Amino acid sequence: MRKYTTLALLSAGLLTAFHPALPPTDALKAEALQDLQAHYAEYQQVAQRIWGFAEMGYKEAKSSALLQETLRKNGFTVQAGVADIPTAFVATYGSGKPVIGILAEYDALPGLAQQAVAEKSPIAGQNAGHGCGHNLFGTASVAAGIEIKKLLKEGKLHGTVKVYGCPAEEGGSGKVYLVRAGLFEGVDAVVHWHPGSENATMVGKYIANSSAKFRFHGVAAHAAAAPERGRSALDGVEAMDNMVNMMREHVPQETRIHYVITNGGKAPNVVPHFAEVYYYVRHPNRADVQAVFDRVVKAAEGAALGTGTTMDYEIIGGTHDLLINETLAHALQRNLEQVGGVSYTAEEVAFGKKIQESLGVPAPPVAQAAEVAPYTLRDLGGSSDVGDVSYVVPTVGLLAATWIPGTPAHSWQAVACSGKEIGSKGMMVAAKTITLTAIDLFSDAELVAKAKAELKQKVGSYVYKPLLGDRKPALNYRD
């Protein structure tokens, strides 16, 4: 990356004049760390309440309301229902520049209801669980926002902090609608995090993603007495799936295609008149995602033609790949190393070893949660709507060890850890690191200017355009 001098940044209009008379950042950081820890029990309770709510994407009414209430009680002005999403919000405190955003998530995953114990034990009557730890995610981000607000109120920092309530990250592309609605305009930098099984700066790529529900319509008939009169919508789904599976050999090797049949009919002796399949297409390059997705659509059209059915499809989500801002990432790495990792009690170590045994594969030492990984470029594997944010504002994130080392996301083991103090301890690593990084951003105009220059260089001539087009938020995509 090119080096930018302060003079050059000023000349280019990228360096904003921040307030010159601020206390030393080391003193502010020490104060913030102490205050966050003093409120640990309060934030732990918020996280556990959201863990119990376990609300899926765009249905997070109680979770969103709790976080909004927490922010309002601490002096934030909250704008609810933004971007045509009832559970999205923007909480703001302060005025002027810089404007620093913090992302908060709070949606759960279907089919992962699990008690906070070290063996598989679903919660009766509950459909979802926090297998990605978003109960911790939203709470830590709110905690960091409140800590920055305190420093702003005391005049120790100057500017504006915004906490973004971001629903439906799990497949609903919630942040894409916030970006599309212009809610990040004028923001100078954004900080986020994600639960995980290690402590690390997020310097890797989330891959681009396009998703849709394909719906086939046929003709019902008695499957034994009059099968010739029927046209099976399920045949359309299965024909599509067969064609897509054959297509896997003939797409770029980094492509990932997943699907679930969400409706295959109601009874074997009735020719299904309706069937639905839900597809994800992923690739590191957003253009390749679109090209492969277009081929999946052609497979669906061919399947309908061959089975005598009709087909329509609904775009559910679409996310960009993640742009890494190394200027900000190096700053966050220093703060993460200052905060350090997670220490476990003997009881938690014993719990962790049981979790690892249940995985059935070799796992790192439980004590690895106390370490901070070195700054390393890595493959993050999945997709996230934070990618769209990273194309319009300098963005940086971290992983924090909220799960026992070796625990995969989207597992009952992750749900169990997210409901224990093991998860809450990792949550505070994230809250503290976000806070320290935000203090740097409020205090160092040149850091922000360099981050903006790096983003401008990486985006180049590309003009951001949402992959999900102009559709309204898919508020019922989990139905």
From TrEMBL:
<dbReference type="Pfam" id="PF01546">
    <property type="entry name" value="Peptidase_M20"/>
</dbReference>
<keyword id="KW-0732">Signal</keyword>
<dbReference type="InterPro" id="IPR017439">
    <property type="entry name" value="Amidohydrolase"/>
</dbReference>
<dbReference type="InterPro" id="IPR011650">
    <property type="entry name" value="Peptidase_M20_dimer"/>
</dbReference>
<protein>
    <submittedName>
        <fullName>M20 family metallopeptidase</fullName>
    </submittedName>
</protein>
<dbReference type="InterPro" id="IPR017145">
    <property type="entry name" value="Aminobenzoyl-glu_utiliz_pB"/>
</dbReference>
<dbReference type="InterPro" id="IPR002933">
    <property type="entry name" value="Peptidase_M20"/>
</dbReference>
<dbReference type="Pfam" id="PF07687">
    <property type="entry name" value="M20_dimer"/>
</dbReference>
<dbReference type="InterPro" id="IPR036264">
    <property type="entry name" value="Bact_exopeptidase_dim_dom"/>
</dbReference>
<feature type="signal peptide">
    <location>
        <begin position="1"/>
        <end position="23"/>
    </location>
</feature>
<feature type="domain" description="Peptidase M20 dimerisation">
    <location>
        <begin position="211"/>
        <end position="303"/>
    </location>
</feature>
<dbReference type="InterPro" id="IPR052030">
    <property type="entry name" value="Peptidase_M20/M20A_hydrolases"/>
</dbReference>
<keyword id="KW-0378">Hydrolase</keyword>
